[in-house]
User: Fold these one by one.
Assistant:
Number 1:
Amino acid sequence: MLTESVEMYLLTIYRLTEDASWAKTGQIASALAVSSSTVSGMLNRLEADGLVHWEWRKGAILTKSGQQIALNRLRKQRLLKTFLVNLAGYQIDEVHEEACRLEHVISDRLADSLEQMLGFPQVDSLGQPIPAADGTVPPVEFISLATVRAGKTAVIRQIDDHEQDKFQYLCSLGLVPGTQIQVKEIAPMNGPMTLTTKGSDAKIYIASELTQKIKVEIE
């Protein structure tokens, strides 16, 4: 039986390799708040178990078996987040820890039942795609807020919650899925973006780095 620690490593590598071909040892260590030597030891173990390919200079990538495990865990996590928001009365900024605790213990059968109960959603409560039982990931074609020009109006469709401190901050500003925003101004040299939300003239200033955490649909 896989341990929670192994599942966390596999999911972390999956997330890091969504935008790059290899997950660096230092990136994994930073994401999991452990030392690089601890990561190296675990990667040796995972490679011996046939779950990752690891090269010291390049980093790690998942094997087919490792990816299947990561996607199964991600599926459960995102179904749980959707259940907690849609049916259990949680706010989206309250579900991360709860879902992370539960995802390790629910069975595939219960995950399938949750999916059916929720109406077979394609995305979770944060707009992130929910892998199907066979491991396929539905395409979600939203664009990064970082690419939106001043004067444009858009609706927030997805928020990245991998870094919880930044996610919680965005939620505190009211920047959650379904919110209509207008980009008022973008400061030069990677300066902050100025936004307003529908029904309010109050200006919201967010750092360039945070605009990359939000995906939107242009109206």
Number 2:
Amino acid sequence: MEFNEKLVLIRKEKGLTQEELASLLFVSRTAVSKWESGRGYPSIDSLKEISRVFGVSMDELLCGDEIILLAEEDNKKKGETFKNILFGLFDVFTITLFFLPLFGLKSGSKVLSVSLFSLKGIENYVFIPYVLILTLCSVYGIMELVLQNYDNDNWKRYNTYISVIVSIVAVTIFIVSNQPYMAFLFFIIFILKVFCLIKLR
């Protein structure tokens, strides 16, 4: 008997609905439904809770192949979480770029390094994209960190790619507007993200 069949059987024997079981396990009803339909497995922590709630061992719930599959799935989720945290930290780091003197400002024959807020005498069509891209990166980084445990496959699938695209847009904006320090810094962030994507697959 497969895990999903055992879970349905044990839950019904205890007279619990999916909602009640979800409440006991501190997960969504959708998660319980997914497990019972065989479309996924619980995390190891959730499996321990199932074992505790029903008073059965994990060995009774899973067969050998399912244990291996569960361990692989759990490792994959942990790797994905680690990658998302790194991406979030890279993007949140861009908050500091509002204040660091990394923008070039032409003053006579010299080019001064100034912070974004000290950047005077440039047109709004140049200044506004700087503020927007730094704000977008910072806010997106905060979202990445806050929504770590948001259980939505689409968010998890596209999150890292959106973050990489935002970095590419930032590099492009700073290259086109002739801001080499900012372009270089965002290029480094982009390279770090690509490295993480490759290494944490």
Number 3:
Amino acid sequence: MQHQNLLIDDADGVRTLTIHRPERRNAMDSTLAAALLNALREADMAPIVGAVLLTATGSVFCAGADLGEFKGERADPDAESRRSDLFLELQLAFEQIRVPVVCALTGAAIGAGASIAIAADLTVMGEGARLAYPEIVHGMVPSLVIGHLQKRIGRKQAFDLLATGDPVYAPQALALGLASRVLPDADVLEGARTLARSLASRDRRTMRETKELFVTTLPLSLPDALRAGREAGRMRQARAAQAALQAQT
């Protein structure tokens, strides 16, 4: 389903989701967040989709949460809670869906926008792009991004970024593991699209099971992760044997 601030296109097994709110520097309000959340879930359910490409129009990937919404929330004590729940669901969705997501990041990704960019399974970042978590500079607690960042780069590096609000440019983002690849800005979209097409060309079930196992084993100890992998392999072999048996009858 199309949305005025989220453009959706299918080609070569890749569903491209383009954040399109340039008049607000692609700031994420609740309506856009809900549209993106629904689009990710729909892509996961669509047999024709082998990968998702997330990108944005304009020179800013996403300026963060739309602060204009905060004014309206003062008159509605439940609005902030609903918005927080929605943004939490959106961040979790990137790991919950089994279709891989590639993000093409150029320009700035700020606050919630940075969290969305690095939540993708693969993030292709332009040489001139930057991530930033400036909430503390504006007297705000970065409550919805702390856990996300800690899990990805560790306690000290995460606290450094959150406590200072300093931007992270592409070379540092790559070194920290927040970006998968860095390309010249002009090549980012096509590079990310090529990567997404490559993922989409793989066997769909195998790719989805690989991502699911990858996410499942992330919080586990090495022995438990290896055991989980062994069990997943056994289940896959059992399904293959069952399918072969059914084909003979």
